[in-house]
Amino acid sequence: MRHVYSDVLQFRGTHYEFGYKQGLLLKDSLIIPNREKQWASRRERHFTINVSEVKQAILQVAPQIWDELDGLADALQWSTVDTVREFGGYYLEYGRSGCSIFTGADYMVRNYDNHPLSYEGRYVLYQPTDQGYALVGPSMQITGRTDGINEKGLAMGYNFVNRRNTDDGFVCNMIGRLILETCANVEEAVSLLKEIPHRHTFNYVLLDQNGETLVVEASPRAVEVRKSNVCTNHFEKITGENRYRLHDSIRRQQAIQDQQPFVTGPYQAFQMLNDIGKGVFSKKYDASAGTLHTTVYLPKELKAWIALGGDQMPLIFDFKQWLQGEDTRAKRIKGQLDSHLPFVQMVEL
Fold first, then answer.
1. Whole-structure pTM over 0.85, yes or no?
2. What is the pLDDT of residues 139-180, one digit of tens each?
């Protein structure tokens, strides 16, 4: 077993100030040097960018994110090209992963499955004072979010489908951030997903305070919407985009559907995904498909739960109180994985 942790970062201020603060923290972090080692062999092949194209794409949707990138660049004393390449959320290749999502009328529960060394170990609460909605959730590529909820009670999570036939566009974690920063409900999020360019092929699961859940199947070629409260790693409508091997995705979907009649609330739903013996939690860490965190979002209560690893009790954040100015006392989220691998911020590679 490996003990792991995520640091809790909370900030109120403009996006530039937020970017600058994150840049100062990254200077003392192992994330950047470790990422350089991880990505060195594929940097030239997969990290080519056109800065003006990325800037135009971001400014059309959420110009405040560009301010955050400016703050990161200034704090790190990096060029715009290097900053956008690392944190811009556009073009970057994305490795395969798992992930499972289940929703009820009042909650979303999500397993994020990936390789431990892909995980940044940053749980972020951010309330902008310039523009955009406040949000909470785990970060990915610093500026992106793997899942989360915003101040309007819109919750979002995504599930990988495939990385074949990529095109110019935003990657999943930046799309998650754009949804949470700019959309107040499911309808607005669907509209955004239909408008923006997609780099890869993913399911995006949405839940708002009205209790409406939609799954958006999005690829560089098509976007389709369906109603469902269970989602894993394959499409139901755009089936031509699916990978050839769907066995594990279908197995986890069936495991959730079989247990759904016995789920009476968010805690039972959390247990269904987080308990190692219930068939949804994954320990396939070496295959980039092990469950790293289980999150729960409650749109009406504006609460967020998170646990690292399986068979855990969740740490609960009262986002509503935080929005009213009450800082959380939590500094670190602790857990353990059935793996020898750490998160990328923990040890020098």
1. yes
2. 999 999 999 999 999 999 999 999 888 999 999 999 999 999
* pLDDT 10s digits, 27-53: 999 999 998 888 775 555 455 689 999
Two tokens, residue 326: 């009450």
